[in-house]
Amino acid sequence: MKVIPEELLIGRRAIDLFGNIELLEDFIWSERLGKWYLKLSVLMESMKLEVPPTTCWYLTTDNEYPRGEIKFYPSMENGLTVTFQHQANNSEDETIHGLWRLGAPCLEVNVQSLNLRYVAQEPRDAEYRIEWHLRRLLAWIDAAINDSLQRPGDAYELPQINSKRSGTIVYSEDRVNVYIWDDASQRAESFGLATMIKLQKVDGIEFIDEFFIKSSEIVHKNFWGSLLKSSATTSPEAIWILLKKVPVVKVWQIPMTYGELRQALFLQNINFLKILSQLSNKIRDGKSHAVLLGCPIPATVGGENDEYIWLAFQLPVLSRGDVKVHGFRKNSKGKGIYLDRLNVLNDKAELEWIKTGNWNQKVISSRGRLNMSFCRSRILIIGAGCIGASIAEILVRGGVNTLGIIDRDVFEKGNLSRHTLLMDDISKNKAVQLKNRLVRASPNISIIAYDEMLNMENMNPILNEYDIIIDCTGENDVLYDLAMQPSSAKKVFFSISISYAAKYLFIAICNGKVFRYDDFIETIKGYLAPSEEKIYLDNEVIKTESLGCWHPLFPARCDDIWLAASTSIQVINRYFESKDLSSFILIFRHLDDGYRVGYELLEKKNVH
Amino acid sequence: MGAIPTYFNDFLSKIRLTKEQIEELKKAHETLRNLLETDEELSGSIVATFLQGSYRRSTAVRPHDDSHADVDIIVVTNFDKDILTPHEALDKFIPFMEAHYKGKYRIQGRSIGIELEMVDLDVVPTAAPSEAMKDIFTRKDTTSIFTIEDYQAELTHRSSNGTSSPLLENSVFSSLYSKEYEQWRDEPLWIPDRVAEKWERTHPLEQIRWTVDKNKKCNTHYVNVVKAIKWWYKEKYPDFKQPKSYPLEHFIGDCCADEITSIAQGVVETFEEIIRYYPDKPFLPDRGVPEHDVFARITVEEYDAFYQAVKEYAGLAREALAEEDTYESAKRWHDLFGDQFPTPPKVTDQQGAQNSGFTPRRERTESVPTGRFAK
């Protein structure tokens, strides 16, 4: 018998602070769960049917208390049987000891119902941590009794779904789509089939593509990026149904069986089996289809609907109607439903929930996104070298939608030290490989790669497709061409380059139809050597890549490149945030003095 | 509110005999029993041996200092008390002691004390009981080392699991209410009093039965009240020898009310009962041997000192129980019982403890900064 650690003895003495909590069974160690657990009872006045005046709970902790997890679980005997808000799904039992259900209240959430009663930050000391949890538990029970677990203003929380199936179904929803779906829900029939896309190299993820009503009318379509558009595999169609709200039973429990599902949907005037029967000919094909439930939810409790979420479960393979059943005509739709109701869809049959995710760009970029109008522009990166590649990477991860990359060069081993491409890409075209890499960083990005060199013939046709041009070639000729051929529409031109050993960073911004070549050259003259040979001769060491090959290298480490790229992006982002429309040239100098690192702005030259 | 049951639980776990001490006691008992059974001289005279005393009744407390825990072992013999004198009966054991416990034993007034490495044994030989009683004494459940708290634990285990252990079924505790009780109720044992030169009666089975019954009436708190008060007296008055052990236990048994709902309540009410009704040393009839005064060996001076002690601390105990604030309550119990009683945490927030009303934010002396990210 493991000895109860002193910290736990101290911690649970907090029970004596409460006149209405009684310790029933002291801590026992469970080797299989790796937890200590004790049993206690809470007495609280209650008029609510689902919460008896005395409720029994198991408190579990780790051996490392006060570190580790603390949870309360409703006891099988005399414990809660329903699921409330801010509680894990309470319909399942803990199976190793069979003493409690798995519906642990979420006591760490930052919601008013708990904070009003007892705010304070969760203490980390042995003496106080269990006490804090006990107080929160009492507050939670009290709120459950008074129907005040979810209050207006709290962040909306969905009921917990445990999906045992592996795999994810991905959708794309935002605030704008709410109007589309709200409209669709007004129709006589707000259900149908949806096409699904699978990616070749990405296992277990299916993307919802088009939503159909009746046979061919598309009610909504998700606009995915290049990777999905080029994907060949499709999966069996899914059934989609619009709901008025999240389906729940027993206060706040997601349906766990077909019986509970039908009950929850019935409360919203939706007849699940009738829908299945109307889609009969499409889904009785011997394959298993997913069912997608679209539910509007607000961002905060009591607020307006902010977004539709899609819940999904896997329907079992339905009967095919070739079995003879007394009382039904052959092929009658009713027969199919009848059979299924007896077997795979019977009330006790378990719903197989599937994990779903919203991969809308807004969600993916929720940790940080570049300026919105910039993101919505079509951006061309000229030059897929180390600077261009780093800039492209930051742009894709920063949430831009449409990108073009043009470069004729082939990726070489020497590029590995400061490029984003990998060994697999050696000897292949940089633009194409960069596209292949970056489409896998975002489901929404559309990228076109041009394995060519920009010249007078292809320049305008290509540039016409883009609003923002970022030159990352470091070549004067390119800039000259961009100056000589005016584009038909106004664009914003950026040029980004660094000097030898990344000492200087030159950023030129030109708002107009051409790049301002003369101004640029004039400005940077003072910072550069007159010729290439002079650069190398001026510097003490001529570095070459390997012996016997005189090819002067242009030194700069990966961190120098990323620093330059990041600095450039920050400048670009500020330009758009401030809605600047001017043209100018910025010269930055690399800080080289002790621990002062980064680039500092040396000069800003306006261009008229 | 001042009953703070969890604190008392932890206090008691610190004053009970340690696991090591219990192991040693059991080992010592078993060794002795085996030696007796195989001893050429004595084995023929031995009817049974069994552990008795405070350990069995779950009223034993750990020794305060480095002294040994001790346990009583009754050795039921078939010596005829009309033939052998108490002196002779005890002397019968000398060869055995010489052979197996040389240098460690000591013949005392009513027993033979054996000092082992970690525990002390008090071997009490008895004269022959009646034939009917012989049967009872040789039964497994009588001679088992099952204590009252073990029995209690098994009962709880059974009620929560629905299964019963064989220990429960075969325990002397369950047969206590059987019709066998009628048989042995009036059959005490005879033990030697060398000093008084006569055989005396004692009834260990009745003592056990009485304790089990009392513990039940007191919602399992009685044996803990005994331990707590024993500890208090030794802690606060280490120089006072008496009353202690069984006499003290017996007195608490008489003074403790039935139907107590906590150990704390038991301690307080026992103190108050003593003060109210026993200003003078009482005559305490032993269980099963009512003509015997349990307090016979306690002097009037010793009792007066005890009485004053109780008077001195009863007020503190009552205050501790009445205290609403857990911190204040625990502080007072700690003053009463000493360092083995857990100390409450430094600052406790009592407002809102009844889960009504708004609980203000509690300031902590050291706050941990948040808001660092690395992902």
What does this structure look like?
The complex is a heterodimer of chains A (608) and B (375). With 608 residues, chain A is of the alpha/beta class. Chain A is built from 18 helices and 20 strands. An 8-stranded mixed sheet of chain A has the order 15-14-13-16-17-18-19-20, with helices on both faces. Chain A has a 7-stranded mixed β-barrel with strand order 5-7-6-9-10-11-12. In chain A, a hairpin with a 6-residue loop joins strand 6 and strand 7. The radius of gyration of chain A is 32 Å and the shape is globular. Chain A starts with 5 loop residues before the first helix and ends with a strand. Chain B is an alpha+beta fold. Chain B is 46% helix and 13% strand. In chain B, the strands form 3 sheets. In chain B, strands 1-2-5-4-3 form a 5-stranded mixed sheet. Chain B has a two-stranded antiparallel sheet with strand order 6-7. The two termini of chain B are 48 Å apart. The relative contact order of chain B is 0.12. About 5% of the residues of chain B have low confidence.
